[in-house]
Protein 1
Amino acid sequence: MRTIKRMHILAGMTLMLIGCLSAYSQENPKLSDPEVASVAVVANQIDISYAEIAMKRSKNKDVLEFAQRMLTDHKAVIEQAVALVTKLSVTPKDNAVSQSLLEGAKETKKMLQKASKKKFDQVYIDNEVAYHEAVIEAIKNLLIPESENSELKELLTNVLPALEAHLEHAKMVQKKVSKY
Amino acid sequence: MKKRLLVPGFLVLFVFMGMGYTALNKTPEPKTHIVEIKKLKFIPAELTVKKGDTVIWINKDFFPHDVTEEKKGAWSSSTLQKGESWKKVITESSDYLCNLHKVMKGKLIVM
Ligand SMILES: [Cu+2]
């Protein structure tokens, strides 16, 4: 019962995120490159912040290994993004999409902090599956179409296979965790 | 007349035998193959080699990867950062993966 409730909350949040991003893209189809860069950096920072909580709270080897991977890989993406905007002399610009991502992340972090010790791994990994699905959608349907600079587009395109690998990895861990 | 032909005839025969002899005993030089790690894939994902050939893996991604034998972890490169490479002499067929991104898989087939 609790699991079902939790899954509904997560599914709801994912839909909200996707809904929010796509509604925004329809209302306001012009997301400038500095804004795209900001969304990309924020989306990566958020997953790093979730991983940091997991590194503190989890005792599960598979979860810790996954969280460590998220820290390393999402930091690598941010480094690439920073290198690119520096090269292009662009400053990432805060915008409604970045803000809505951060708002959503605030709630999720609360949820991760509040989850019982016993449930933490499940809550964390369920959120990782949902979050990666949402971010993959957002990159494909919003950020890539919105970016004008070809190198920015290329960077986003190159990040997709990593996010897809993370999603599959998260699903593998999810299967193991739900057995405990 | 006959004798004069016989000597060069033998010479030619010896030369041919010599060539045949070296050709039979010369094992082909081991080859070096390259597998690129790019966009979270091993390219080519499946590679056929001869026993004793060398395979070099090069990480072209900005994510770290490794190359690890899949079934028992019998061999593994250490973590390869962007631009780093690792080589191994291949003696048997094996399935391998990136232990950091376990969905990245590759296969070596020894003929
Ligand atoms: Cu990898």
Note: Chain A has six helices and no strands.
Protein 2
Amino acid sequence: MLKKIILFICTFMVIYTFNFFIPRLMPGDPFSYTSSVSGEDIDGISEADLETMKAYYGLDRPIGAQFINTISSNLNGDFGQSIHYKKSVIEVIGERLPWTLVIMISTLVSSLLLGVSLALVGLRRKKMDGLIYTTATLLSEIPAFLIGILLLFLVAAQVKFIPLSGNVTPFKSFASWPAYWFDVFIHALLPITAMVIITTPIFYFTARGSFLNVLKKTYVLNAKGKGLSEKQIRYKYIVLNGIFPVITRFFLSVGACLGGTILIENVFAYPGLGKILQEGVMYRDYVLIQGVFLISSLMVLTASFIADLINEGLKKTRGINQ
Amino acid sequence: METLINVNALSVQYKEGFTLGPISFAMQPGECLSIVGESGCGKSTLAKAMVNLLDHNARVSGEVSLQGQSLLNLSPQKWEAIRMKRIALAFQNSSEVLNPLLSLGEQIKEILKKVFPKNSVKKRSEQLMEMVGLNPEVLTQFPGQLSGGMLQRYLIACSIALTPQLVILDEPTSSLDMHTKNEIIALIKDISRNYGVSFITITHDLGLARDISEKVMVLYKGTLLESGNTDEVLESPRHPYTRGLINASMDIQPYRDIWGIQHVCECDQPEMGCPFFRRCHQKLNSCREHKPALMIEKNDSSRRIACNRGGIVTLLEGYDLCKKYGSKAVLGNIDLQVSSGEIVSLVGQSGMGKTTLSHILGGFLACDQGTILFENEVADFKALHQQKKGLQMVFQDPETALNQNMSVYNCIAEPLTLQKSETPETLWLKVEQILTDVGLPSSLGFMNQKVKTLSGGQKQRVSIARALTMEPKLLIADEPTSMLDASSKANLIRLLKGLQNKHGFSMLFVTHDIACAMKISERIYLIKGDEGIQEVKDPTKILDYFKGEAKPSSHASYFQDTYHQPAV
Ligand SMILES: Nc1ncnc2c1ncn2[C@@H]1O[C@H](COP(=O)(O)OP(=O)(O)OP(=O)(O)O)[C@@H](O)[C@H]1O
Ligand code: SF4
Ligand SMILES: [Mg+2]
């Protein structure tokens, strides 16, 4: 257990270091862009101004010093000011993260349920299994953004009440909470659908493989020999024993899902992390990029840590040693 | 009594190639049957076929009926109602028989609640645990937390939980210690006797089969080779394979040396013929094509065997042999048999005529009366000595038996040279091979050495090699180790036994050493001179006969003058 925690911390530190250096190694610097975005009609900024700004953000100092500085302020809970948004990074991310989470969590949960159900259907009917398997294989080959665009054209453009972009209808005041949530739901519907379409096959394949594996075990045959009903065997034997790889996959999919969400957000102009990351990269907003990466890697790492914990805990209580 | 279960021509064919059966048998209520055989012979397959638990890759044909109700084509729903209530199968123990994520209590509850009211389930599961000697606390534990033996007992408890009429136990005691094993056996016998429950026990432990069942079936490569009453089958097996199993089983041979059945490459195994063909030492050429059917024995209606030769054949028979030297009767009323592939020891006190009898049986001495048959015909010793597949003898004293001035090579090659059946090259190879077989160097230097330069143990090995070149069916060895020290003796005896096991010849082993006879032979004859001969069923008793009684009075008169009583 201690080993796991140490590993967790080490991984985090490596990522943290990369996270600091990579944006700084990208060509360009934040200030070449600052002016044009703010809309002011200035052709360029003077050398002196540039120096001032660099000094203000601490970018004039040697990179090592910047690194140490960043660590110490991070430890104090200060993740810096976004150069582009001119707000604290925490504030920017705090506004956007919940929207990304809405999509990610809905996606992961629905794909998990859908994937497992499909695997169960296939378990019972051989023909259906073949059909689902082929479809899932095909779907898993299509990139997420393509599905997003297709959905935009085929659904959003045709169906009136489904909006094309955004997270809530702007400037609208809502009579009640349910009305607000419905608006959120209807906006998130297409991005989530796109994400579910590409994520479900992952869970389906994992669940199917795992169930088929359990099916080979003697205890399933023994259960049949005990005269248990098919339903009892399916849930208390096959699903119970086969679900753990799926749950592990759930947590391990957080990274892939985050990546997908970031792309999809851009297709649907959904104001989540994806959007600020795109802008952050465009304007070389190191501080912001760093913040986004940090929160992302923290999410991914924590998820796989949880997956480990669940497996360990289960094995310990049930006396399984492998 | 109504037949409980009737299996008729049950046969299973796996897509991967293995075929079981057809197998037929019937069981009465309360009867216990064992199915024995080597690993992979299809025991578990048979069990699963009977309860309809085979995979899709198995094709099943034939018929199984339980109290008249045909089982094989029942719908899954009907089977659900029969399982555990009328037929139960306790699976071969492995770490995967039980659901690792459900507690043991939960898993036995699944069975019990099919029949018993909910509120009695807990009490019943606890009772069952106590019955098989487990602490009821295990019910809160998970399969991964129990030892193999505990799981095995738990599986037995599950199988009897709903009081079925037939319980099939697949290797029920393979991971139990002696004490627990005996308890389980007692429990099973008790249940069977008191409630008329029938048990089929699948095992490769012949000791378990002997203790637990009245009937036994011997399975080999999916074919039933022998069946009968357990005691009788184990006491006098009729099929060479059954005998091989018994010889390989420590469970029922407390003192005998253990020898497995020779493994051979399966390259020449005929598709059609007897499944035991490759490993059988009494096979005929016709066995290659003709698969023997399971037949009822002529003089024992409870015994069935599948062998083209009607089971183990008798090789040598002697009837009413008598021998006199002058007027002194040395041997009288000697009747004995040696079967193919067995080691028979001839023991007796010094001067009781062991060597005389062995010379008579070996054809080196004529007897005054009686007949000797070899393979059912009056023995023609001249032919048997000079031809291959006949009879050879190893004498007590190699000094006199071997021509001391011959080279080792000539001495061993002589019988084959006389026969003129070999070219010089093959002869050379044969001698080389046989020297290796008997554990002698096969170098040129050794072959050219004169026999007289060898040690006693080496000489005896040479005379064994000489006998073996003729590939005899019967080897008579007269005290072959009496001239040797303990270690050479042990080596030589193991060598002989190993060669016998490998080549499958029969051996008549003459010795005064009971311990040695007990170690290596399947049967022992005690020879009592002119009073005849007696087969010893329980060799441990024979020691008493040999102990003799010291007669204190007999020396008293001789010694009393010279030796003085020690002062007290
Ligand atoms: N499900 C299966 N599919 C294909 N072949 C099988 C299957 N189960 C067993 N076999 C084959 O059938 C033969 C008999 O196997 P079985 O398990 O009945 O042997 P067994 O006598 O019970 O052996 P053991 O004493 O080791 O348990 C083996 O050759 C095995 O490889
Ligand atoms: S004698 Fe023939 S039929 Fe009998 S066991 Fe040997 S090979 Fe099989
Ligand atoms: Mg088995």
Note: Chain B has a mean pLDDT of 83.
